[in-house]
Prior knowledge:
66% helix; elongated; Regulatory protein RecX; Arc Repressor Mutant, subunit A
Amino acid sequence: xxxxxxxxxxxxxxxxxxxxxxxxxxxxxxxxxxxxxxxxxxxxxxxxxxxxxxxxxxxxxxxxxxxxxxxxxxxxxxxxxxxxxxxxxxxxxxxxxxxxxxxxxxxxxxxxxxxxxxxxxxxxxxxxxxxxxxxxxxxxxxxxxxxxxxxxxxxxxxxxxxxxxxxxxxxxxxxxxxxxxxxxxxxxxxxxxxxxxxxxxxxxxxxxxxxxxxxxxxxxxxxxxxxxxxxxxxxxxxxxxxxxxxxxxxxxxxxxxxxxxxxxxx
Length: 266
């Protein structure tokens, strides 16, 4: 049998109870009132355990409500948060169940809201959104249903907007390398092939022959100087291979090499 020896109001909320053995109990306002935990009250061990469990449930619930006040969360996120806040693992299930009862935890609602937000605010395609939902603990079936909101029209719109950004980013690349990098960028963002092809077609990524020649000349000159220590055959081979890997047409490369050979002979 224990007895409450001291009751102290905590700064934020709730009370600290000091028992005759020196043991401390941290209880919420609600638990304090419900069990009438006044100084001098005697507590049996079974009641102390009940108070501890009720307090943990109440604390976990309040922490979860605060966590949810900023934005929707998945069940996995809430469980992780409560563990980090040192809520006993055996009490987290009851907290989640209490939140479910008032529909504050619903992974289907969360997934749908998340997909809508990604469509509106990000450049990510369905495959990447699916991966992110999986990391947040959303079941695959739930994620798949939510992703039905990401229509082909929305995918096309977002993929096209991203393609335009990528075209500007890689404007100093050869036409072929630019196309390859744009396709790769769109794939990494989670768009499927047919959406990628349609996005590239919609912005008409056409080859500018004059620009292509200028870019080859600039890069070719750098490569030619970089390999100046090599004998002429090896120098030519090295430059040709590098330019070809950069996506330039072989015929254009040959014209450049012939020009360099004439300069070398002169």
